[in-house]
Amino acid sequence: MKIAIVILNWNGEVLLERFLPSVVKFSEDADIYVADNASTDGSVSFLRKQFPGIKIIQNETNGGFAKGYNDALQHVNADVFCLLNSDVEVTKGWLSPIIEGFNTLTDAAIIQPKILDLLKKDHFEYAGAGGGFIDQLGYPFCRGRIFQTLERDNGQYDDVKEIFWATGACMFVKRDVFWQLGGFDADYFAHQEEVDFCWRAKNQGFKVYYIGKSKVFHLGGSTLSNMNPKKTYLNFRNSLFSITKNLPRRKAFVIIFIRLLLDGVAALRFIFQWRFRHCWAILRAHFSFYRQFRKIYKKREKAKFILKYYITKSIVWSYFVHQIRNFNILVKD
Questions:
Q1: Are 248 and 127 in a shared domain?
Q2: pTM of the model
Q3: 106, 144, 206, 243: which could join 129 in a potential S-S bond, CB 3.0 to 4.6 Å?
Q4: Beta-strand (E) ranges in the chain?
Q5: Helix, strand, or coil here: 37?
Q6: Could you give the CA distance from residue 270 to residue 99 in angstroms, rounded to a whole number?
Q7: Sequential pLDDT tens for the chain (333 residues)
Q8: C-alpha to C-alpha distance for 110 and 131, rounded to whole angstroms
């Protein structure tokens, strides 16, 4: 099995200098690429000087995460693509469980390792944690991370488990599956494009797995922190995109109406927290969604929609009303 690790970079010379050595050191069984999204810093010259063995793909424009990978992966020949953030520190032996997973899980199309916090290494990290899920209303969460609450890693998710979505921070996907799905939706630009991608994969009968014996450490927030209103905007808007594209029409319309109400509550909450720019980001997200609704609606899957896509009806209700902060408690509840 030929694996290609593809790191998308945009003005990330400092991150490449810090994190690329671990990838080179512990990825002997893979080819390593850096896909540069039209950086204006010294990233490319740094790579050529310090890492001459790494293949460089230079995208003509900064199309964000989605288009950036779509453009770059056309130049990569491998059986499996590993999409790896530039702020991820990998560990010794991290590829072996993934390779074994693809060899033994014959229905696996996408695999994610355990994602831990680089700055607090005994805790899960926000982006992916122990594998991603969504609730009935399309809100994403993870084993080990519900909203801003991160669990300590006590080995509780050292398993192999089918999940709903794998994080774009470190996602392994079979090349044929990636192109059969048409790659990422470039209209997302960044954030939650992996949720949509995995949802489309599920609708077409593919499976997504988490393998806890493989672990990496993620710095997180290197492009946009959780406190950045632009991230709020993209997360809320792109979540509505995914609902529109991946659910039966009647169900999608009902959920979009409910989300309009709940997102309004979230905007009010930001006002009470004096975070007015985040409130405005949610409003802009909805305005953008409504403007692009016809375009997004035309992208609806022709495959049969899966109806059991969620494991809880409302993560918002469970978290804020019932005060559930732990994934295993949520599932038992």
A1: no
A2: 0.95
A3: 144
A4: 3-9, 30-37, 55-59, 80-84, 88-90, 108-117, 120-124, 132-134, 140-142, 145-146, 149-150, 160-163, 170-174, 207-218
A5: strand
A6: 44
A7: 999 999 999 999 999 999 999 999 999 989 999 999 999 999 999 999 999 999 999 999 999 999 999 999 999 999 999 999 999 999 999 999 999 999 999 999 999 999 999 999 999 999 999 999 999 999 999 999 999 999 999 999 999 999 999 999 999 999 999 999 999 999 999 899 999 999 999 999 999 999 999 999 999 875 556 678 999 999 999 999 999 999 999 999 999 999 999 999 999 999 999 999 999 999 999 999 999 999 999 998 776 899 889 999 999 999 999 999 999 999 875
A8: 11
Is residue 323 assigned to a domain? Answer: no
Residues written for the chain: 333
Report the domain count for the chain.
Answer: 2
Look up the domain containing 179 and give its range. 3-218
Residues paired with 207 in a beta bridge: 108
